Amino acid sequence: MSAIATESLPDARGHFGAYGGRFVPETLMHPLLQLEEEYFRAQHDPEFQRELNYYLREFCGRPTPLYFAERLTRELGGPKVYLKREDLLHTGAHKINNAMGQILLAKRMGKTRIIAETGAGQHGVATATVSAMFGMKCVIYMGEVDCARQALNVYRMKMLGAEVVPVTAGQKTLKEAVNEAMRDWVTNVRSTHYILGTAYGAHPYPLMVRNFQRVIGDEARRQILEKEERLPNLLIACVGGGSNAIGLFYPFLNDASVKMLGVEAGGEGIKPEKHAARFQGGSLGVLQGTQSYILQDEFGQIQLTHSVSAGLDYAAVGPEHAWLRDQNRVEYSYATDEQALNAFMKLARLEGIIPALESSHAVAALIERAPKMSKDDLVIVNLSGRGDKDVSQVANLVKL
Ligand SMILES: *Cc1c(COP(=O)(O)O)cnc(C)c1O
């Protein structure tokens, strides 16, 4: 396999091979072009990087540990397992890395109002948090169904001073919330920045969010070299839109010996409307600004999805992942709800760590794969978030 020229991707219009791009109405072109220009300027400005690093360290709690999971390693009897502890960040997940980067960009652009979409509420909470911290007005769009399912996160966002707008269109979930956020952005673009929560959407979002999340992989690479004096054999991360996974993978893409595994939500199995594994049942299409793998029917209608974990429950996957899959650089598999729940319990009991249900999909893939690996191998699993938010849901599913 030839080396991937990571620094040069995507092309100027945001294409990762056949994927990505900017499929938006004319009215969104200007704000996206302006954002792209400002982002590239900030990215190369040492003062912006210094400020971002300061807040990531002092407010968010970076660097996160790369923790040797001794009991899990022994139990699985395979490779030496390290956990990248994004669950220890402020607000409980990797989402704050991106929210912090984007709000500093918004401040620099002179914006005074922040909007965001959220599904389960994790990105909404991260965005409301950084908005409170910088004194910005914050509006979060959230499907009405999700508002009911995640009432605690709705209250949390309100405590932080955000306005939460329930979206009643369509299926009343994440997809409709994104549409509303885009509509707001077009109308209020002079004052407003849209903090999109994953490595998805129109260019420059997939690239920008990946760059704000690559701190995960940059740290992990440095940490594993310090601890083991060699690179890992395998990286594992769950894939919703794809931001925690690309954040871990990206700094290792040119290390040909490092294999990578992205884990999608297999839900109740790979049957229409019962899962969210875009690489299992999906096909090429356009949704919400970008071209990628999408769960759609033969007429291009977006299919219903299901996962026990709200953060993985989306019909499309980030374009860079689709491209990395075509190159055979990253392998993509899935874990079912049941496997994820088992992994959730196993990590709690063996390591004293309650992982997010999303992250539990990555742990489930580890459990499946470890017995086939050598004891000399090293694996890094990205623990994208903590499971406190999931405890009441799991209590309804698993009787103890
Ligand atoms: C949102 C979320 C995810 C899924 O989003 P990605 O962009 O694919 O990372 C995964 N884990 C946690 C804890 C989340 O909150």
Hetero compounds: pyridoxal-5'-phosphate
In spatial order, strands of the major sheet run: 3-4-14-9-10-13
Unreliable sequence segments = none
Structural class computed from helices and strand pairing = alpha/beta
Helical content band: 40-55%
User: What is the molecular shape?
Assistant: globular
Biggest sheet architecture: 6 strands, mixed
Distance between the termini: 48 Å
Total strands: the figure is 14
Radius of gyration: 20 Å
User: In what range is the share of β-strand residues?
Assistant: 15-25%
- Number of helical stretches of at least 4 residues: 16
Order of helices and strands: EEHHEHEHEHEHHEHEHHEHEHEEHEHHEH
Report mean pLDDT, rounded to a whole number.
Answer: 96
Description:
With 400 residues, this protein is of the alpha/beta class. The protein is 43% helix and 18% strand. The protein is built from 16 helices and 14 strands. Strands 3-4-14-9-10-13 form a six-stranded mixed beta sheet, sandwiched between helices. A four-stranded antiparallel beta sheet has the order 1-2-12-11. Strand 9 (234-238), helix 11 and strand 10 form a beta-alpha-beta unit. Helix 4 (95-108) crosses helix 5 (122-133), helix 5 runs parallel beside helix 7 (151-159) and helix 9 packs across helix 11 (243-249). It is globular and about 55 Å long. It starts with 14 loop residues before the first strand and ends with a helix. The model has no long low-confidence stretch (mean pLDDT 96). Residues 93, 95, 122, 198, 238-245, 311-312, 356, 358-359, 384-385 line the site of pyridoxal-5'-phosphate. Pyridoxal-5'-phosphate (PLP) binds at residues 93, 95, 122, 198, 238-245, 311-312, 356, 358-359, 384-385.
